[in-house]
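Recall the central idea of this unit: under ordinary conditions, the amino acid sequence of a chain determines the structure it adopts. In this exercise we apply that idea directly, starting from the sequence alone.
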Amino acid sequence: MAELRRVDPRTLVSNPNNPRSSIGSLEELRKLALNIKAIGILHPPAVRQLEDGRLMIVAGHRRTQGAIYAGLTEIDVYVGDQSEDLDALAAVSENFVRLDMTEPEQWNSVTRLREQLGYTDPQVCAALMVTPSYLKRLSLLAKLHPPILDAIALCRGPDERQRKIIAQASLDEQRDAWAEMFSESVEDDEDPAEYRVKAEDPEDTVAWGALARNLEQKEWYARNARFGDDLARKHKIVWMEDLFAEPGTDSRYTLDATAYAAAQQDWLDNERPENSIVLTSDEYGYVRAPEGFITMGTWMATQEGEVMGYGLNPRTLKIVEERCRPYSAAKLDHTGGSSTPEAPKERPDVSGTGHKMIGEIRTVALREALGEVAETADPWEPDRSPSAGAGSRERPCAWRCQREQLVRANRAHARDG
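Accordingly, the structure predicted from this sequence is:
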């Protein structure tokens, strides 16, 4: 049974297996201390008594530090008698549902629960309130180079697709690619393979797309390249022969995606046809025309003033071609060749639906009027009006009144549309 005790927070021993390696920034700790000063600790930390009598924190390291920072000399703690294995599960669960742990911290905790304490994946998911797919996503972290984990902890890591590609490469391959990427970002006595993204510099980021391409197990063929042998030599591309390629095809390829992309970009910047423009594309390969231009579909007729646009697809590393037209010319063609815009159509005061509603209202009103006349008139009273001649056939007055009202209503309805 758990026992509530009053102790000095400075006497509590930190858990060496605490899943959280940090308690947050000093500003966060100060806010927590101010909150504790104002309302106290609502949920006392959970501790376990060691063999030497000391109390070790199971859950509540931040609350303990906040109490110390607030200057408290006594706080309440729950002293439990649970096992060390249950302590570990409780500590990880506590941190998952409190201040967010970084993904590497989460993965290290999950690894310990799995490998050292023998918890199954369903037990871990139930305790940490995560899905199996999320747990599988965390498992990719075990296959990543440590500096990549640091970048992920700073929320500057690769996206889901890039992470999968990088994790498929061996740690040695990741290390070599990382060293090549940051070879010019370190001092002479530093190892570029161990370069860490600087937390204090928000602009210090990683070109994850380039790193993923470099590690992707894929052949980049010469037949898909726009650059020639000169640019290949300039960027130190070494071609290999695909022995299983069809006869008569250019079977040369390279595994160096970084050099291949650099050569394609070099062609795009310096050797593309004259009077052409450069297209931009996002990481998914969708082509975008530069400002002032619009891409034209293949079914659209060619017109004077069009130019060819060339862009590099970041995923396939192929040069994309698109016909482009100045935006003003495209707008002119869309309006049928007239530079004078059409006058906007005048909107009627009452729409067709409105007329229909008015007609329905008038019909209801007409029926009500006819009903009132029918209730007060004698249907068999003859028409005595002077317009009725001696030889005219007499009609009931009520019937004639209803007929005249109906005719007037129909004429009004027709006149108003």
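Confidence is low (pLDDT under 50) at residues 334-340, 383-396.
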